[in-house]
ABC transporter ATP-binding protein (Kibdelosporangium phytohabitans), 942 residues
Amino acid sequence: MSKTRLRWLALTLAAVIVAAGVLIWVNSGSDGPTIATENRLVSSGDAQLDTTLYLPEQTPAPAVLVAHGFGGSKESVDADARELAQRGFVALAWTARGFGRSTGQIALNAPDAEVADVSRLIDELAKRPEVQKDGDDPKVGITGGSYGGAISLLAAGYDKRIDALAPVITYNDLGQALIPNSATTSGQLAGTPSANAFAAQGVFKRSWAGVFFAAGMGGAGFANPSVDASEPGSDDNSNQLAAQDPAAAAAGGAQGAPPPGGRGAAQPNGPCGRFTPRVCAAYTELATTGKASKATVDLLRSVSPVSVTGRITQPTMIVQGEQDTLFGLDQSDATARQIAAAGGKVKMVWYAGGHDGGKPGPSLRAKIADWFDFHLRGRGADPGTSFEYAVQGAIRAQGAPSVRTMTAAGYPGLGGRSATERRPITLAGPQQTIVNPPGGNPGSITSMPGLGSVVAGSARLASRLAVDIPGQVARWRSEPLTSQLLVSGSSTVRIRVEAAPGAPVPADGVVLFAKLYDVAGDGTRTLPASAVSPLRVTQLPADVTVTLPGIVRPIEADHRIEVAVTTTDQAYAVPAQPAAVTVSLTDTALQVPVVPGTRSTQTPPMFALIGIGVVIGLVIVVAIVAAIRRRRADDVDPDLTGVPLVIDNLAKEYPGGLKAVDGLSFRVEKGQVLGLLGPNGAGKTTSLRMLMGLIQPTEGSIRVFGHKVHAGAPVLSRIGSFVEGSGFLPHLSGEANLRLYWAATGRPLEHAHFDEAIEIAGLGHAVRRRVKTYSQGMRQRLAIAQAMLGFPDMLVLDEPTNGLDPPQIHQMREVLKRYAATGRTVLVSSHLLAEVEQACTHVVVMHRGKLVAAGEVADIAAVGGEATFRVDQPDQAASVLGELAGVTGVEVDGKQVHANLDGTPRSKALGALVAAGVAVEQAGPRRRLEDAFLELVGENKA
């Protein structure tokens, strides 16, 4: 088919698709049903509650109360309430006492305060003719996230007029959420997937609690994540909750306090902010001592759903996030067990979000509405009591992970169902001693409160940047898995903890933190969901069962599972007293929960199918146009996609017959630090310029991860380079230069990894100074940091130590080693032999454009046949070696004796030394890369 006909086909198809799109738009009608709203203040005890009632087009209808998260207001859930009203429910949103324009003090969902407020609101709904009733009893459901999820449960326990509920990302026991202890000496745990020990005397979750308290002081809340979590087909952002913005809240935005003097505004109460004195005293105790008295524990329990779940029998859909370092999956697990034991109907959903990952997306919100549709007015199919959990895959589209939903018939261990299947994974590792430094500083880093709700995708980045401090961590690993293992809940491990010899036992016991890592074949560790299980062991020695964090994680074949136990974590309050303990496995089997399920399928509505058809058609048009305009197909060798670099018969000839590179071929594997070695004029820089697509080769090919390199090849984005010089702007700081460079690439800011690159390059605070004040060494470091931005899979550097003095060269060498330690590949061009010998694992030697040698540094260095012997009698050894036939060039260097064996087997020389009574401590090739290099390039005149 000719190009002209192809163009006509593309244009015709485009016209058809545009016409279909217009037809869909015309037939789509308005934005949805008309929703009427009423704003009013409702008196409840000593508080005035700011409310909004959302009325659907057709009434009477069942009502749904919509509660907001901590630090929010009714505006936070406006979109959610409207969405329910569009589904035909009367929705009522209100601002909880102590927040926004509602008066009163924050009592953390106390029965005589916030719970009583909900009952008062139901009284008001019962008076409304728009609300459907059974006699005088209104048909009412309730939902909310985090703080709002807790009030949903508490209200259902106290007020039986609530007919159905859907709590989201909330807690079961606020004491165990903020002061968790995940270890038990009994070894007995429930048979549900994410059951936690929930032991007493836990470890204070200082970072999250601080955010919590700050929100009650009038700052922004944290409980409503600002982005939708990834769901199949979730691209609707129109119903997101308002972002939690501390600055906006402080200024009187929708999420925080109203402007000073605003009507009905709750006023701060000294150092307690808007909290009741009792709550303020409890937080003060925790923040100053890190421990909870019985009074504080009793208070937290009294305002937690655990106090009423034993009497909740209404149908309950529990939605919990898999990315949540505040309220983990163990909290929803406990709630489900308690409601089921009371005879309630429970459906459990774990989704790919949470306080660190985003709110439910549109499809999950639709399921919540379906739950109310069935249980409040008998419409639709029975949602049942199935268990759904989201699995994030390795494939990513537009930076977002692929997500599939797995469905089991029910939550294991509930309602007479069999207990959760647990697969034993054998761990290996010795007994290890770990220390808690004075003050618990420096501390390990696992999570930052609400990170994922601030920047999309940053929670997943954080899971790859967990830091354990050497000397403070014990590790045990499995063998590589032979097939994928889908972890679905909390794994358990048995460990023994005892005081290290001579070390005192702290009076408050030993605080430890347990983690489960996914370790890839290249050694890269990922801490799923950035989750950690704190534990306090009060009596030593002790054998304890540790419940690791509840996660959903497909661990791929060839990956290993690592269990780590640390003494510190910056998100928690750790003991200030120094301590040392030994930890060991009492059972080498890690028990991993596995919940078999089927992949859920959904039939999209016809309108969605038409929309999908339009999208597919547009993709076809783009593909046809791209096929017409593309002059060079993307040449990929599938057998080389895992190989960083393959150069085959590469040549570059300039006018006049000068061949800068002639028939060059070599290969670089993952994890190698390869030195491209050669005298000035050998063709090193020309080769690197061809590798970067800056100039075109005359002959041959270059493949990077299987893709053939050409100017502008997409695969070049996987390379970070320093070849043509840095070109920094001297009047800007180093950091500003890096950010300007990254902005020019057009890639997302969150993919840059500025802080990590600056840390690896060792720039420190100097990165904030103007570049014109930098020494040459600092400029080189900045150039390396620039090359490392985005953490490229391969780093290519041309003479990175040029102009540096010896200390700076040593520092640069350490920079390259640190980068290589991340599991990536480094290619360094240099004419400094000592640097290549000390920094590189492999070497390619070039001379006059040709390859003269390639291999491991040690092998290249040993080509001259020289050997080194470390002996106790150097002079005697030199005499013995000198008498052997063919041996020349014998030298004594301290306790080392060097000799050119010139074909004489090293074993023969070793035997002669032993026979002469010389004790040989070490024998091997003499690693002198300089001599080997000079011999290879034909310049060794000796």
In short: The chain has 24 helices and 38 strands. Residues 461 and 750 are 9 Å apart (CA to CA). The mean pLDDT is 82.
